[in-house]
Amino acid sequence: MTVFVIAMASEAGSVLANMTDVKSVTACGKNVYKGRLCGRDTAVIVTNVGKVNAACGAQYAIDALSADRIINIGVAGGLNGGMDVGKIYGISAAVQYDFDLVQLNGTKIGTLNEFDEPYIPLNTVSLYPLKKLGTGDRFNDSVDDYKLLTEELDADIRDMECGAIAQVCSHAGVELYSFKAISDLAGSGSTTEQYKHNLALCLEKLKEEMPAIFEEVNNG
User: Fold this and answer.
1) CB atoms within 10 A of CB 219
2) 142-160 confidence digits (pLDDT tens)
3) What are 158-205's pLDDT values in tens digits?
4) 166/178 Cα distance (integer angstroms)
5) Which residues have a Cβ under 8 Å from the Cβ of 66 and sit 6 or more positions away?
6) Cα(129)–Cα(60) distance, rounded to whole angstroms?
7) What is d(CA 149, CA 145) in angstroms, rounded to the nearest whole number?
8) What does the pLDDT read at residue 82?
């Protein structure tokens, strides 16, 4: 079954608005919704924000719901001039930019202890332009983070969950697809204010595109 692993209830609403026969339960501190989308059984796990929450939600999807395919959707920040607010991008690879074993292992920033490279590849479809994403447990306007993400890791987008989900799925051998709507752009003023201003636009776009995303992932 294809299961959505999503950080926030507002983002999950973009999926739930397209589902029928929805029933909800609480499991492991997460809200879990089961129903049908485009005539297929599916589920949505609302993990809450951050890497540990996201990893727990992904593992629950795999262990308790027998997910063989996970979709992560949500809003995220753009890091370069090639990104457009309100536009959806597919994620080709994700890195945890706040994971640092450089001093101990001599590996590049973001390289997990059990991996050789910083980026973990994701499964992709051809619906949207593909971008690389950096994940960290920070929402800020840090110049240092921006330089790390863009100059050292060559990331296009940043969020707080996808890289952790990618780590779980990689170990479990489960397909992972991720789609992000851009709510804010680095260097265009406060990301917090941009996020608040553009959130509704991004959520509406995700809701409109959700049937196409779900069909493409399941038929790809």
Assistant:
1) 8
2) 999 999 999 999 999 999 9
3) 999 999 999 999 999 999 999 999 999 998 899 999 999 999 999 999
4) 9
5) 1
6) 30
7) 6
8) 84
Please report which confidence band the pLDDT of residue 113 belongs to, taking 50, 70 and 90 as the band edges: very high
77 neighbors 157 (Cβ within 8 angstroms): yes
State percent of the chain over pLDDT 90. Answer: 95
- Any idea which residue has 């509704």 for tokens? 200
Please name the amino acid found at residue 162: C
Q: Which domains does the chain have, with CATH numbers?
A: 2-219 (3.40.50.1580)
Q: Can you tell me the distance from the alpha carbon of 61 to that of 121, in angstroms, rounded to the nearest whole number?
A: 20
Give 130's Cβ-side CA count (13 Å radius).
Answer: 10
